[in-house]
Specification:
The chain is mainly alpha-helical and 246 residues long. It has a domain at 10-97 and 168-245. Helix content is 80%, strand content 0%. The protein has 12 helices and no strands. The longest helix has 35 residues, at 200-234. The two termini are 24 Å apart.
Length: 246
């Protein structure tokens, strides 16, 4: 049954987010390490000192490699988040997680996901220029556009519209929730900094582990928020949401 106030439950979202990761640490942390952590580690180690990294501007080949690496990182990040969203929906529905199936489901949606990511980034960036507040509102409005696209099989604009409908009336709670996630990310980063003072190599290693943890939390967190919004507004259950991936 839908909640009478139509708003999400912060404690339930947090429990679902960290519960999913705790039940599937190999999938969530392992996949995040493979797709985000290790590529970031390679980039950091390859760059070396800041002065050396600026030298790539003198080499067309190096510039091409840098641009290619940037787009590859976008590809990996989008695939990671979409994969973890599918995995989270299945876990919370009490279904076994088939990693290969989750990845294939994410890759099938890759082009519209990329298109939507670009559109969202441009919109939020423009909003941030307009005194920041409009950018924050757009970020909250479109927060669950990716799980909408994955779970409800909608197009780019339909996913953005649907996300705006689901988040309507819950933006203040979502803002508080996101602040909480940001604080967790900062704490993880600070712990990483305290453990990485020995050398540049250790800084890169710890940085990769921090990115791994944040990537896993982000994927599971966005999916958990989406599920809770649908539960609060429409009384949807996770079993029905995960049926689309069967």
């Amino acid at each position: 049954m839908a909640d009478t106030n139509g708003q999400i439950d912060i404690s339930r979202v947090l429990n679902n987010t960290f519960g999913v990761i705790g039940r599937n640490p190999v999938i969530f942390l392992g996949l995040s390490l493979l797709i985000v952590g290790i590529p970031n580690l390679i980039v950091q180690l390859a760059q070396g000192d800041p002065a050396a990294s600026l030298a790539i501007l003198d080499s067309p080949a190096a510039i091409f490699e840098g641009v290619s690496g940037f787009f590859l990182s976008i590809f990996f990040s989008v695939v990671l988040q979409a994969t973890l969203i599918v995995a989270t929906l299945n876990d919370l529905a009490g279904k076994p997680i088939n990693l290969g199936h989750c990845i294939k489901t994410a890759i099938r949606k890759f082009l519209p996901l990329i298109g939507m990511s670009i559109l969202v980034s441009v919109g939020i960036g423009f909003g941030m220029i307009l005194l920041i507040v409009p950018g924050i509102i757009l970020a909250l409005m479109w927060l669950v556009a990716t799980p909408v696209m994955m779970a409800e099989n909608k197009g780019i604009f339909a996913s953005l519209k649907r996300s705006a409908q689901l988040t309507s009336g819950s933006k203040m709670i979502l803002f508080i929730l996101l602040i909480g996630f940001i604080i967790v990310a900062i704490i993880i980063g600070l712990i990483g900094n305290m453990l990485s003072f020995w050398s540049a190599f250790m800084i890169a290693i710890v940085g990769a582990l921090v990115n791994t943890a944040i990537g896993a939390i982000q994927g599971a967190g966005v999916a958990s928020i989406y599920i809770d919004l649908r539960t609060a507004k429409e009384g949807a259950d996770t079993g029905s949401l995960a049926d689309v991936f069967a």
